[in-house]
Design brief:
single chain, about 350 residues, 3 domains, mainly alpha, de novo design (two linked rop proteins)
Length: about 350
């Protein structure tokens, strides 16, 4: 089997190198392998990224009935005896790639001039936001150090770092890095809103820093619009505009869930259950953060973060069940929290269904 599997894996590596390891540019390749029943051979590769795994899992599930597992070599070589040479799948893929060669070459002509990122206003504003958040977090309660503080500092740092990583020649990867930066900015705003709800910061501090985060998103969006409409002509680039997460119903309910969980965990029964207490708070706030970060450019990434939010809800449900079993919370509190979680989960499931359709189209 290896003499069939290894060439397919090797061709995948070559294609990935050719498109600068951008998962968004190899999506067609993944779909092709899935349709041919061969995408499962990529799961055993030890050099694929987390984002690649998402794409592989998605197409594996979508085309699971197509997959060829048994007598692989025999199935692949079972062509009619018409005097034609046997064509292996990886050779077929090469032919498919050659059909797109003109388009690929045209895309590869679109390169950018690398500039000093420190002179970019978006980078400067992101750096200012990072510095102010680090200063602000010094006044947070010590018990939030390993939770809200670490998370908001991480997300604010990511905004600046991803902008710096986006200062390169390849336009597609610039879109990728800026998309991550936009997602981090929205996540940072979410942590600020959680902090406001906990009264760790004032309304004035929130408004000031949230406005700064929104400025970064606006600058990055305008930059990407310029690239798409000028240097990126002819390239399949995503829409740079992202929706306002604060108008998303699931996000609003997730913030209510955080308030609910913090209120519940004030009960004295949690004084001896610190692991459960912090676990419940972490799952609730993680739901908010992941919903916020999902509001960026690329569909597979949106899908992944929405899925992380659902995973956080599932973790919270398990911890609530434990608290109920230990009689730390009442049945009414448990059921009220579950109803709120279900409302969030239903909205996310519907949104993920729509995203799946857009991936398949």
């Amino acid at each position: 089997m290896n003499k069939v599997v290894e060439p397919i894996q090797q061709d995948y590596r070559k294609e990935r190198e050719r498109v600068s390891y951008s998962i968004f540019d190899i999506e067609t390749y993944l779909k092709y392998l899935a349709e041919k029943g061969l995408i499962w051979v990529l799961k055993d590769m030890d050099d694929i990224s987390g984002l690649e795994k998402v794409g592989i899992e998605y197409y594996l599930n979508k085309y699971r009935t197509n997959q060829i597992y048994d007598n692989l070599e025999e199935n692949l070589n079972n062509h009619p005896s018409n005097g034609q040479p046997i064509v292996y799948p990886h050779q077929t893929i090469r032919s498919k790639k050659s059909e797109q060669e003109d388009k690929t070459k045209k895309q590869q002509q679109h390169f950018l001039e690398v500039k000093d990122v420190k002179r970019f206003i978006g980078y400067q504003q992101a750096k200012k936001l990072e510095e102010r958040i680090y200063e602000l977090c010094k006044s947070f309660p010590s018990f939030e150090k390993k939770h809200i503080v670490d998370q908001i500092e991480r997300s604010s740092t990511s905004i600046k770092e991803r902008i710096a990583m986006g200062e390169q020649r390849y336009i597609g990867e610039k879109f990728n890095q800026y998309s991550i930066s936009i997602g981090s900015a929205k996540e940072t705003s979410a942590w600020l809103q959680i902090s406001l709800g906990r009264k760790y910061i004032t309304q004035s501090q929130y408004d000031d820093l949230d406005n700064l985060a929104n400025q970064v998103v606006s600058i990055l969006t305008k930059t990407l619009c310029h690239l798409r409409d000028n240097e990126g002509l002819g390239m399949n680039l995503p829409n740079p505009y992202t929706p306002d997460v604060k108008k998303f119903g699931a996000y609003e309910n997730a913030l209510l869930l955080v308030e609910r969980i913090y209120e519940i965990t004030r009960h004295r029964g949690f004084w001896q259950e610190k692991t459960l207490l912090y676990g419940m708070r972490s799952c609730a706030t993680s739901t908010v953060a992941n919903i916020a970060e999902a509001h960026q450019l690329y569909v597979p990434v949106k899908f992944r973060f929405f899925n992380h939010a659902i995973e956080a809800l599932s973790g919270l449900e398990g911890k609530l069940e434990t608290a109920l079993m230990k009689e730390i919370i009442s049945k009414d509190s448990f059921e009220e929290s579950i109803r709120l979680m279900e409302s969030i989960r239903n909205v996310l499931a519907k949104r993920m269904g729509n995203l799946s359709k857009s991936l398949a189209s």
